[in-house]
Amino acid sequence: MDLGLKDKVAIVTGGSQGIGKGIIKVLKEENVNVINFDIKEPSYDVDYFKVDVSKKEQVIKGIDYVISKYGRIDILVNNAGIESYGAVHEVEEDEWDRIINVNVKGVFLMSKYTIPYMLKQGKGVIINIASVQSFAVQRRVAAYGTSKHAVLGLTRSIAVDYAPTIRCVAVCPGSIRTPLLEWAAEKEVGKDHVEDKIREWGEMHPMKRVGRPEEIGYLVAFLASDLASFINGECVTIDGGLRALIPLSSPKIETK
């Protein structure tokens, strides 16, 4: 299906690996001009500009680069995100600030300095990568869970304030096979048992597996297209049915 995205200009933050890399792969297949904003240089071919999304000056410099080279920004995908573990009493203030600055302030800054160009163009789409943990959280993810809840509030605010010129949508993935997921598995069970842990997490999803970064990319490409022109201010969940499942054992009922 032709999504009508050919020659559009998209910025994807945190695109050097994981979900961001999967999103860029799909957008490039749709012939989108993609620019990757990341602090880490990518290991694959993509237009890249080094940006720490939590730093105003770097964000402005990156957006200026895109405008000077392409003349417009049609799609912004706020994907950059970091995670750490800790309940409220365990999280140091500096660590709290680090998580919130990247996961929330980064979305704010990227949107703040992109929106004026989209308004001038008369059209634009902002897609924020949130999480199933925007709705419910694991234990000991106080900063990360808070940040992903905040992304939904920011998504709705942008959607309401700038419609119909700009649409803003959030995507809420479940467990996706990324370096971040592998890090989490290693932290929990050690390096030798990462695959076993990821299979265990996959079994928690009704689809009996974790997702692939490209699957998030397919959803993002659709949401960025005019086929999704009436979707605004929503969080589209892509989690293999995880949120649909009540994690309790069912009573055994004899059938005759």
Short description:
The chain is an alpha/beta fold. It is 43% helix and 14% strand. It has 2 domains: 9-175 and 212-240, Rossmann fold, CATH 3.40.50.720; 177-210, no CATH class.
Features:
single chain, 256 residues, alpha/beta, Rossmann fold, globular
Q: Explain this structure to me?
A:
By secondary structure, the chain is of the alpha/beta class. It folds into two domains: 9-175 and 212-240, NAD(P)-binding Rossmann-like Domain (Rossmann fold); 177-210, no CATH class. It has seven helices and seven strands. The chain has helices at residues 18-29, 56-70, 93-121, 142-162, 179-189, 194-203, 213-224; strands spanning 9-13, 33-38, 47-50, 75-78, 124-129, 166-173, 235-238. A seven-stranded parallel β-sheet has the order 3-2-1-4-5-6-7, sandwiched between helices.
- Give the SSE order as H and E letters: EHEEHEHEHEHHHE
Q: Using DSSP, what is the number of strands?
A: 7
Number of domain modules: 2
Binned, the helix content reads 40-55%
Using the alpha-carbon principal axes, give the shape. Answer: globular
What CATH first level of the largest domain would be assigned?
Alpha Beta
What fraction of residues sit in β-strands?
5-15%
CATH superfamily of the largest domain: NAD(P)-binding Rossmann-like Domain
The largest pleated sheet is described as:
7 strands, parallel
Mean pLDDT: 93
CATH topology of the largest domain: Rossmann fold
How many helix segments?
Answer: 7
Write down the Rg. Answer: 19 Å
Instruction: Note poorly predicted spans.
Output: none
Rounded to the nearest angstrom, the distance between the terminal CA atoms is: 48 Å
Secondary-structure-based class equals alpha/beta
CATH architecture of the largest domain: 3-Layer(aba) Sandwich
What order do the strands of the largest sheet run in, or round the barrel if closed?
A: 3-2-1-4-5-6-7
Family: Belongs to the short-chain dehydrogenases/reductases (SDR) family.
Pfam family, one: adh_short_C2
Protein name: Short-chain dehydrogenase
Organism: Saccharolobus caldissimus
